[in-house]
Amino acid sequence: MPLGPQLLALQALIVLSCVVLAGSAAVSLQQRQIRDAYTEQMLAVATNAATLPDVVEAYEQPGGPGDDLQDLANLLQEASKVSFVVFLDADGIRLSHPDPALIGSPSTTSAAEVLEGKPFVGTQTGTLGPSLRAKMPIRDSADRIVGAVSVGVVESELDDDFTEDVPWLAAWLGGAAVLGSVGSYLLTRLVRRRISGLEPDEIARLLQAREAMLHGIREGVVAVDERGRVALVNDEACRLLDLDGAEADRGGGGVVGSRAADVLDPAALALLEAGDDAVDAPLLVGERVLLASRTPALVHGRRVGRVLTVRDRTELSGAVRELDGERSLTSTLRAQAHEFSNHLHVLRGLLELGRTADAAALIDRLGGGGRLLSGAGLGGVEDASVSALLMAKAALARERGAELVVTPASRVAEGAGDDVLTVLGNLVDNALDAAGQGGRVVVEVRTGADGGGVLAVDDDGPGVPEALREEVFRVGVTTKAGGGGHHGQGIGLALVARIAARRGGSAAVTRSALGGARVEVVLGGSGRPAPSSGQLAGAGA
């Protein structure tokens, strides 16, 4: 059976059951109230009849009660609206009765207890049929029991009084049943509309499909409702946004239902709460570079929240940076190979002409022109990855018409680690951008086998204003042309600062002896060397 008819049938059953139970209780209560009311009335009539002076005088007459008791009984019966009032003598003989033919005959119901002085209230069957009756003893002026009076109402009259109220009660109960059924129908329609007319098994299948899709995609998804609470988050978002220990959306608790301000990174929260939509905006969470997109969540054209999707760009950025370096290095090597080939041709010609002195002069003149790095070489840089990075950056500098110098004091042990590569790559890129064409960049790197040590880069560019020397380590802050609005700008130094903080070190910007900026980063590690006290640019000059 579909959900709608099931809900309607269940609610109708509940309403009808409540109505039947309430009706039964009301009928029982009404019957009890009617019997109680008649009982009180008959007790009052019997008590009054047994104590009336005229009744006592009639029993004290020398010849015994006469016809006056029958008249009194008829008068009391009409006045009190009861079925009968019967007087009895001390032997239980009727002295009055609605049927005059029964006067003088013994009572068909026992009056022994009453004649002994005990009142009686209950249902008995007499000549008029079953009746609810009250019996009271009659005492003379000497307080002797001389008779009894019986006052009663036949059961048929009680039933008639009750049946007079039944139509009204049935009408009220029927109205309640109809009202409850209409309410059940409207509630069923509301529920169906709220669940878009879906059946329970369809909802279950949709939920299963949603879970499989949500937690299977390789992009992080976070949805926040209009109250600022996380409504949905998948496993990839928990990983990318460092929501450690959070149960994504599978068992309740964790992030789902929490305030976004309490669980999300401030940078992610600021991007999520921004007014306009965003597509592939750079986002730095911890040390992970992400691309984030923000869109409104709409249901039937009404905004119900915001959705943030994030993709990891950290590995991609590193791969692109390495690829650019390799391309630059390859181009430089190709150009140098061509240049070296030309020199060999000249040298061969001189030798063939027998001009050995000119050939020797040419060799002396060429000298170290084929080296990638000017100044000192890379003899102290033992780590192959760092060497390759510096060679690639030197080739890039040559293409830009700049000069990259590695100081003789540089020492990099094998296995320096990814942190050193990330920090050094970002610092050199920034320095080359600042130096520009014809500029000069000096690098000194001194790290141990655990990666702990000091990395310093000087340039002869415009430098960093003193007011911004702490701000440049914040996400989105940059001194490059165009500010932090350009894609990817305002991320590098923030990432460097976070790596240094994680390693128990520091990052600082000062003025360089070359006239530009000097960025010095200390990375924690066992046995790390002390920071250089002088300007590294001077050592490499």
Description of the molecule:
This protein is of the alpha+beta class and 541 residues long. It folds into four domains: 3-160, Beta-Lactamase (2-Layer Sandwich), CATH 3.30.450.20; 218-312, PAS domain (Beta-Lactamase); 315-370; 372-540, Histidine kinase-like ATPase, C-terminal domain (Heat Shock Protein 90, 2-Layer Sandwich). Helices cover 46% and strands 20% of the residues. The chain has 15 helices and 15 strands. Helix 1 packs antiparallel against helix 5, helix 10 (314-352) packs antiparallel against helix 11 and helix 12 runs parallel beside helix 13.
Descriptive key words:
single chain; 541 residues; alpha+beta; Beta-Lactamase; 4 domains; six-stranded mixed beta sheet; 15 helices; 20% strand
